[in-house]
Amino acid sequence: MRIRFAVMAIMAGAGVLSACVTQRPEQDARRDYERSIADYENCLAANQMSTCEGERRIMKANKRALSATARRPSR
């Protein structure tokens, strides 16, 4: 009986851990995207639009990465 309980506890812990692991890339992607939006807006506020092309491209790439993590099926 003790062995069965231990195995069930380990399996439950693994389920919680796997949920954390699958959410982490999406959280990282969201943080990167939000940071790149702020960088782009700050650049626009301080410069002309043509100066901020690099920031705009980074923001677009981060948006695509966030969309890709959101579309990935969860386990």
Q: How is the main sheet built? A: none
Averaged pLDDT, please?
Answer: 79
* Total number of domains: 1
Q: Strand-residue fraction?
A: under 5%
Instruction: Name the poorly predicted regions.
Output: none
Helical coverage, percent range: over 70%
Number of helices: 2
Q: Total number of β-strand segments?
A: 0
- What shape does the CA trace take? elongated
- Counting copies of identical and different chains, the oligomeric state is single chain
User: Distance between the terminal alpha carbons, to the nearest Å?
Assistant: 29 Å
| Estimated radius of gyration | 20 Å
What series of H and E elements makes up the topology?
HH
By helix and strand content, what is the structural category? Answer: mainly alpha
Would you kindly provide a written description of the structure presented here, covering whatever features stand out?
There is one protein chain. By secondary structure, the chain is mostly helical. The chain has one domain (23-75). It is 85% helix and 0% strand. The chain contains 2 helices and no strands. Helix 1 (2-46) packs antiparallel against helix 2. The longest helix has 45 residues, at 2-46.
Summarize the structure.
With 75 residues, the protein is mostly helical. It has helices spanning 2-46, 53-71.
Describe how the helices and strands are arranged.
Elements: H1 2-46, H2 53-71
Helix pairs in contact: 1-2
